[in-house]
Design a protein that fits this description.
This protein is α+β, with helices and mostly antiparallel strands. It contains 19 helices and 17 strands. Strand 14 (about 495-500) and strand 15 form a beta hairpin.
């Protein structure tokens, strides 16, 4: 998957506080993680069945689900609805799928309007329903816009359908689009002609990922359909790094079987498809590597990114969906109705409702008597363990255990309720005019005073403070787009101001309902190391092999502050991590907090780890009550455990939490 996770010109302010670690917490229940690297899901799953692995990383094919359903004593499976998507990416800057004569769509530009018809024809030749039915075997949801089911409030399917913008599989309609764009076979050789040059169409360059069987099959199906209607295709079935170079860096492609792991903020219309994040052709690598550039779309994408309220984002996203389909920017395929698995016998696994069982909370809480190592399988190798520039899912699966941000989310409902580096915050406004909004967002973070930088060798460890936070924001901003993976979190950063050793203000130029989650999600790096890396060179810096501060410790071993420390990596073989025994959260706090989050996020009224008939019973007795009613668990009594949003009344919103999660367990 181009499986992304959706973060120096200013030097550190003052002297950084130095300190020694005095308390031992041993938060993670299992001391070691060994990541075993595979190149395909099937050998990884075979290793899980054989007992070599304890947990997998990739959604299971139906064949494995069916097989393991008969083996509960060996394998435990948990389902989730993926907050991500697979799509056919289309190069909007390369003829005939896009225009080479105008970066932005322009009615007066012949290639612009003709290429829209061509892209719509591609969409009508992709049989998404067949893919979900026969390739995914039902384990997926068809997508028409780049918005997964969990974000359905941002879609207006009724309007899209009524406007004729839903492109079902329809060969006749595809041909009509091609003819409307002038792509006809004028010389009778069964190859359509270029309406501008008059020559036969050149082969479409179609990169198809070989490491994902589902995307490979979908790509091959589409290539065959294109050939059948007279569009020549050069289908290149190859591995991930070859696709990356040609698609995301060189932009030398027409079609690509892409994929994204999305964040909890539905700002992908802006970050993935607005012209602001297309840096080509001069800058190699763009978030918007399809190069979709449309002025009208940009206007509404900004409203999705910078809404005053979430409701404003809903409405703007619906318009973005309309314009996205009208231009057929890319062709979304599916979001996984996914299943992942772990070895039966492990306790404490946490099933994240959007990403599955292999997540930060699981690795903090997962344990098995007599086993000191969690063996985790990766479908693909990592590319680069660089917290500033790494892009791929597997990179961030590792980095996400080593580094932390200010805030986190409840794994059961993705609400931004959890405190990590920050122990508190406040949100206010300031006047950022004339360059920004008069009521732009400013966030004050209060940093914990008991967090220490890693040192896997066991030596001195410096205490993290507000200057570390300031550096991380400022350095990412200085790196800019194309270098900082997390730049979308701070593209409208105005300044950061250290108030005292453990307090910092983060100022944005814009007002946005999402600003807290952006700032809260910025990974915090170590300025002792990164201040020695020129921002222009950050993409090429390798913390695994380099020792920039010349202390005989590889940089990644002292860069993080998360629950896990880096030990070793062998290309194509393994990654080794070890628990930080001086991590600032205790195992008791983590297990207790998980129970609270499952109560709040999944509707576990009685806090027994499963949402079942007992919880519905409690809800039935308390439904319709308010804080002014007698308190208790009997009929007509207000039960605070049923008031999940703590708004003072138990209503249908609270009941819905239980209803949609009925039958779920914590892990």
């Amino acid at each position: 998957m181009r499986e992304k996770t959706f973060i120096v010109s200013v030097l550190l302010v003052g002297l950084m506080a130095l300190g020694m670690v005095s308390a031992v917490y041993a938060a993670a229940r299992t001391p070691n993680i060994t990541i075993h690297i595979f190149l395909h899901p099937d050998p990884e799953n075979a290793a899980l069945e054989a007992g070599t692995l304890d947990i997998n990383d990739w959604p299971l094919a139906k064949e494995w689900v069916d097989r393991w359903a008969l083996m509960p004593e060996t394998i435990t499976m948990r389902d989730y609805v993926e907050l991500g998507m697979m799509e056919i990416d289309i190069n909007n800057q390369k003829w005939p799928t896009g225009s080479e004569t105008s970066k932005f769509y322009d009615d007066a530009d012949e290639q612009s309007w003709r290429s829209v018809y061509f892209r719509k024809a591609v969409a009508c030749l992709l049989d998404r329903d067949k893919i979900v039915r026969e390739v995914l075997k039902g384990y997926g949801y068809r997508l028409d816009v780049p918005v997964p089911p969990a974000q359905s409030a941002f879609i207006d399917m009724a309007n899209y359908t009524a406007s004729g913008l839903i492109y079902d599989y329809d060969v006749a309609r595809a041909i009509s689009f091609l003819e409307a764009g002038g792509f006809v076979d004028t010389d009778g050789d069964d190859i359509r002609n270029d309406p501008i040059s008059g020559e036969n169409l050149k082969e479409l360059i179609f990169y198809i990922r070989m490491d994902d069987p589902n995307r490979r099959r979908a790509g091959e199906m589409l290539a065959a359909e294109l050939e059948a209607v007279g569009i020549p295709v050069k289908a290149i079935v190859t591995e991930r790094t070859v696709c990356y170079k040609n698609v995301m860096v060189l932009y030398n492609y027409h079609l690509y079987t892409g994929g994204w792991s999305l964040g909890t903020i539905p700002d992908q219309y802006h970050d993935l498809y607005a012209s602001f994040t297309y840096y080509g052709p001069d800058v190699g690598w763009s978030l918007n590597y399809p190069g979709f550039c449309n002025h009208e779309f940009d206007t509404w994408a900004k409203k999705v990114k910078y809404p005053a309220t979430i409701e404003e984002a809903h409405e703007a996203a619906k318009v973005c969906g309309y314009l996205f389909l009208k231009s057929c920017a890319v062709v979304p395929m599916w979001s996984s109705k996914a299943v992942k698995a772990y070895k039966t016998g492990w306790t404490g696994v946490v099933n994240n409702g959007a990403y599955g069982i292999d997540n930060y909370w699981t690795f903090l809480n997962m344990y098995k008597a007599g086993d000191d190592t969690i063996d985790w399988g990766f479908k693909s190798d990592i590319e680069q363990l660089n917290m500033i520039s790494s892009e791929w899912l597997w990179d961030h699966n590792v980095l996400g255990l080593i580094y932390e941000s200010m805030l986190g989310t409840n794994p059961f409902n993705q609400a931004p309720t959890e405190f990590f580096i920050a122990e508190d915050y406040s949100v206010s406004s300031w006047d950022a005019s004339p360059q920004g909004d008069p009521d732009a967002t400013v966030i004050r973070f209060f940093v914990r005073d008991n967090i220490y930088r890693h040192n896997v060798s066991g030596g001195y460890r410096r205490r993290l403070n507000a200057s570390d936070v300031k550096f991380s924001f400022d350095y990412n901003y200085e790196c800019g787009p194309g270098i900082s993976w997390n730049f979308p979190l701070i593209e409208e950063l105005n300044k950061t101001v250290v108030i005292d050793e453990f307090t910092i203000d983060v100022y944005y130029n814009k007002k946005s309902a999402w600003a807290l989650q952006w700032a809260g999600g910025m990974p915090i790096v170590n300025p002792d190391i990164w201040s020695l890396v020129d921002p222009a060179d950050a993409r090429f810096y390798d913390p695994v092999s380099e020792d920039r501060n010349n202390n005989l410790i590889m940089d990644i071993k002292e860069d993080g502050c998360g629950a896990w420390m880096f030990v070793d990596y062998e290309l194509g073989s393994y990654v080794q991590l070890v628990r930080d025994d001086q991590y600032y959260l205790t195992d008791t706090f983590i297990s207790d907090r998980l129970a609270e989050m499952f109560h709040d996020g999944a509707g576990d009224v009685d806090r027994n780890g499963v949402v079942n008939i007992r919880d519905l019973g409690f809800m039935a007795r308390s439904l319709g009550t308010t804080t002014s009613d007698p308190h208790g668990t009997d009929w007509g009594q207000y039960n605070v455990e049923c008031d999940f949003d703590l708004d003072g009344d138990v209503d249908v919103d609270d009941l819905a939490v239980v209803a949609v999660n009925y039958g779920k367990t914590m892990g």
